[in-house]
């Protein structure tokens, strides 16, 4: 028994059918409870007022935007090495979700930045690298759409994902060099364990992050299932001989 | 390899090859900038390095879609894939030919256009140096983009969507080096970073481009 048995679409679908209801409920619970707790259960910040509460959307979305690309990188690598179709379809399914997360992070950041920094947008390293990440998502999705043969499309987008990852990291450091930041550092540094957010704000934030993670997982499983079924439909049609 | 290089350069120079098109585009873009931002000498001087870099980058992009597409249409690309010459080598040579016919003229033309934009005298040397170091990366990365979109009809727009984000690091460091040079600051750090990116892409990108071409033409 290994994880590779789920490269078989049938096994993957049966597992995901079992897991999905749990995921949806858990994700819905975490997001709803986290957001309500965050929006109504926490006090206003003494300097930022109630605007601080956008953190409950902004941080989890930004987190998932990066992790979605990371997941696409891994699944693309698996496709290139082991040629499991489920893997590359999961990458394809994750791309639009990741792109939406990027947009949420950028838009909520702008809404927060307007009263706090006095501007909707600043060419700050973090903001800029997120914008570049958004462009990478766009290019990746556009390339999937443009190529007709599914296997060629999978190959080419996987390579683009690998190359894009290198350049995304490169751009991240390039923009840091180019302009000093306005954006604050991370509030929850994983490496050092210390954090600058007080417990009152921290627990609902963790709840939201977990919720967004589960939501992402559920969405990707759902969309991957759709992609697999689309493939099957196409195969059935091809076998039936019609060029529909 | 030498034959391929000479063939590509010759094709580019002959009628319909598009040599000079990038150069003309570079000229036009630079001439249009004062019309759009106004003729103040001080303003033009301060944005000149960035504008020249952006113009060179776009001019480079302009000639990318014919880099592999023409060879794909007449079957040359299939021959290259099946020939004993490693595809990585062939791709590198094609990128080199693209650089010689597009990048190098841009580097040489940049100082002339710098005069038009009132670039400070200290900046000329650094502008040429940064473009000379940076444009090979543009050609190599562009070849990768061209390889990705080679079989796609009307891939030109997609090509720019794919390639432009990959140009970001080169653009940042290149324009920064030219800007610092123009201001009389020390441009060594961005210049070194730029050179690093160029050498890394020249060394590694042909493998990605060749892999993409093999998959696309399978």
Give the uncertain stretches of chain B in residue-range form.
Answer: none
Put simply, the count of helices of chain A is 6
Q: Rg of chain A, please?
A: 20 Å
The proportion of residues in beta strands of chain A is: under 5%
Q: What is the oligomer described by this structure?
A: heterodimer
Number of domains of chain B: 1
Q: What is the 3D shape of chain A?
A: globular
End-to-end span of chain B in angstroms? 23 Å
The span between the termini of chain A is 40 Å
Helix content of chain B: over 70%
What gross morphology of chain B would you assign? elongated
Mean pLDDT of chain B: 86
Interface with most residues: A-B, 24 and 27 residues
- What is the beta-strand fraction of chain B? under 5%
Number of beta-strand segments of chain B: 0
Helix-strand topology string of chain A: HHHHHH
How many strands, what sense, and barrel or not for the largest sheet of chain B? Answer: none
Secondary-structure element pattern of chain B, one letter each: HHHHHHHHH
- Give the uncertain stretches of chain A in residue-range form: none
Number of helices of chain B: 9
Explain this structure:
The complex is a heterodimer of chains A (244) and B (218). Chain A is built from 6 helices and no strands. With 244 residues, chain A is mostly helical. Chain A has one domain (20-185, 197-232). Chain A is globular, with a radius of gyration of 20 Å. Chain B has one domain (2-216). Chain B contains 9 helices and no strands. In chain B, helix 3 packs antiparallel against helix 6. The model of chain B has no long low-confidence stretch (mean pLDDT 86). The chains are: A mainly alpha (244), B mainly alpha (218).
């Amino acid at each position: 028994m290994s994880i590779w048995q789920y490269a078989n679409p049938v096994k993957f679908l049966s597992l995901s059918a079992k897991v999905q209801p749990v995921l949806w409920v858990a994700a819905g619970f975490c997001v709803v409870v986290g957001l309500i707790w965050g929006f109504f259960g926490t006090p206003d910040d003494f300097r930022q007022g109630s605007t601080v509460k956008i953190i409950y959307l902004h941080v989890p979305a930004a987190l998932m935007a990066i992790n979605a690309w990371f997941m696409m990188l891994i699944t693309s690598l698996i496709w290139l090495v082991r040629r499991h179709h489920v893997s590359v379809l999961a990458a394809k399914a994750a791309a639009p979700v990741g792109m939406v997360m990027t947009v949420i992070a950028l838009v909520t950041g702008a809404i927060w930045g307007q009263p706090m920094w006095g501007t909707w947008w600043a060419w700050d390293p973090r903001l800029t690298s997120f914008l570049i990440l958004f462009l990478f998502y766009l290019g990746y999705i556009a390339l999937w759409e443009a190529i007709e043969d599914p296997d060629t499309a999978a190959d080419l987008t996987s390579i683009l994902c690998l190359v894009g990852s290198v350049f995304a990291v490169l751009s991240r450091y390039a923009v840091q060099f180019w302009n000093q930041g306005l954006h604050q550092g991370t509030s929850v540094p994983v490496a050092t364990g210390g954090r600058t957010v007080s417990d009152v704000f921290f627990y609902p934030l963790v709840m939201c992050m977990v919720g967004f993670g589960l939501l992402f997982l559920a969405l990707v499983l759902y969309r991957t299932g759709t992609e697999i079924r689309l493939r099957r439909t196409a195969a059935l049609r091809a076998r039936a001989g019609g060029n529909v | 390899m030498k034959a391929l290089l000479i063939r590509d350069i010759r094709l580019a120079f002959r009628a319909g090859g598009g040599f000079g098109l990038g150069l003309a585009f570079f000229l036009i873009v630079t001439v249009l900038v004062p019309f759009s931002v106004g003729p103040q000498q001080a303003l033009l001087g301060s944005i000149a390095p960035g504008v020249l870099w952006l113009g060179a980058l776009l001019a480079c992009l302009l000639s990318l879609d014919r880099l592999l597409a023409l060879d794909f249409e007449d079957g040359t690309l299939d021959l290259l894939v099946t020939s004993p010459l490693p595809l990585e080598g062939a791709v590198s040579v094609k990128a080199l030919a693209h650089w010689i016919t597009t990048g190098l003229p841009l580097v040489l033309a940049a100082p002339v256009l710098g005069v038009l934009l009132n670039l400070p005298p200290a900046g000329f040397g650094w502008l040429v140096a940064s473009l000379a170091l940076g444009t090979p990366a543009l050609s190599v990365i562009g070849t990768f983009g061209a390889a990705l979109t080679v079989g796609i009809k009307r891939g030109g727009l997609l090509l720019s969507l794919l390639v432009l984000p990959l140009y970001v690091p080169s653009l940042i460091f290149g324009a920064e080096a030219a800007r610092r040079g123009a201001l009389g600051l020390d441009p060594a750090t961005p210049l070194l970073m730029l050179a690093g990116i160029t050498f890394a892409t020249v060394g590694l990108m042909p493998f990605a481009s060749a892999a993409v071409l093999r998959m696309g033409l399978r």
